[in-house]
Each structure stands twice: as C-alpha cells, then as structure tokens.
Specification:
about 160 residues; globular; 3 helices; single chain; Putative ester cyclase; six-stranded mixed β-sheet; NTF2-like_dom_sf; SnoaL-like
Length: about 160
C-alpha cells in the first residue's frame, strides 16, 4: 500500500497546506492527511483539548458519523459525545501511532489511555475528506488485552 507515514502526536502540529489553524480550505491544494491529523490533534491530542472548535474548523456541516452509540450520527452529536468522554476521563491521552492516506480516505491507528497507568485501547479511526473538510468517520475500538499470548504489541 502506498502512503505510509508514521507520526508521533507531538510532531503533528507543524502541518502543511490547508491544515493550519486557519480555514481548512486555505491554500492551493488540500492535504487530506494533514487535515485529519490537525483535527485529531486539536480535538484530542493536545493537552488543552477543543473538540467543538475542531469540529467547526474541520468537519463539513453535513458530516456523517458511523459510531453506533452516537444518536443521529451528526456533527453536533459527535462533538457532544467527545466532550462527554473528555469530561468523564479528563486524564485520558490519545496518541497517534501511525497514519495511512489514500485518495479521500485517511486512517489513524491510535493508542488511547483512559488514565495514567491504565491499560491502553487500540483505536482505528477512518475519515473521508472532501474539499478539505472531513465528511465521514468510522471507528473500531479494541479494549485492553489480558493474558495476551502474542509477544507483539498492537502498537
């Protein structure tokens, strides 16, 4: 597969093209990976998380969420859901481990740690980008593993 780039969350802030802190549609050409990483960083990775502002900046108004426990699957419902997660687990950390981008799809492999010293969850987030705006999202969440027999980490 083409398009493998490994990013650490700390390195994702210096993004190019349309994914800067201004309008996601600025610049001559859109970098879909940069848009998604900038969104995720602002919403979840940075110590001061701003999911609602990130949704307003990077999500299309008609954004579609596929996560089954978000009522209506709308942009507003998804932003509210993330705000609730952050309020419930304020010490949580999201770390982008790797990204893959091909065409209008961007995949993030993320380590989610709900609290200091807690076992990590593996997240797979898939975003579809159109005209420098995120228009759709799917995810797969795998909880911590107890008694793993495979010596290789999920990360």
């Amino acid at each position: 597969m083409r398009g493998f780039v490994f990013l650490l969350a700390a390195a994702s802030v210096g993004l190019a093209s349309c994914a800067h802190r201004g309008s996601p549609t600025s610049g001559a050409q859109c970098d879909n990976r940069a848009v998604v990483v900038a969104f995720y960083t602002e919403a979840l990775v940075e110590p001061e998380r701003h999911p609602r502002a990130a949704f307003e900046r990077y999500m299309a108004p008609d954004f579609i969420e596929h996560k089954p426990d978000i009522p209506g699957g709308t942009r507003e419902a998804t932003a509210s859901f993330l705000e609730g997660v952050i309020a419930a687990v304020p010490q949580a950390r999201w770390e982008i481990v790797r990204t893959i981008a091909e065409g209008d799809l961007v995949f993030l492999h993320v380590r989610f740690t709900p609290a200091e010293g807690a076992p990590a969850y593996a997240l797979a987030d898939v975003f579809r980008v159109q005209d420098c705006r995120i228009v759709e999202h799917w995810d797969v969440v795998a909880g911590p593993v107890e008694g793993a027999v495979n010596p290789h980490s999920r990360f």
